[in-house]
Amino acid sequence: MRSSGDGRGEGGADRATCAGGGSRRSRSGARRPRCRVRAAGRTWTITTSNGYTATGYLPGWAEENPSQTGVRPDTLPVVLADISHRAPFDGQLIRVAPGGYGPGEEKAILAGSIDCNPDTGSAEPPEPVVNVHLIEDYWINGLAPADLARFAAALRAQADRLDHEIRPRLIAYREDWTAHHPT
């Protein structure tokens, strides 16, 4: 496995500094690195053709600036609702075979982004969440920090199971197969 080099994660990767040495414990007791955003926040501005201006916070980690001018006043609510702050991150390149047949091809899995949509359409304040792109059209969306921790724990548990249970079984099964099918 290697990190996908499709540029998906370059947007936010250099905008935060994390140090494991200065880690702190979460409520669950797990150690987590201290991170700080390196790029300063800015302001986005959307101006309508009749001169009305809407502004908002543009996080330093956001990949794109949604600022616009000359927006038709009747489309302003839609333009504001469509604002999404995003910082993508790379996944891993894994060889996959659709339907389980053939040699397959390398696809990026477990890539994703940290997203924050300021206009959530609810009374809840917006917060950045992680959206994980499993593969092609499959995503796990809206992961808050605790959800992301559970997802990471599930991945670690599966990786441990593959390494400590499935791999030894595979070795034993291969030895059994070889013993009963001499070449």
TrEMBL record:
It holds the Pfam family DUF6907. Residues 1-35 are annotated as: Disordered. Residues 1-13 have a biased composition (Basic and acidic residues). It comes from the Bacteria. Residues 24-35 have a biased composition (Basic residues). This is DUF6907 domain-containing protein.
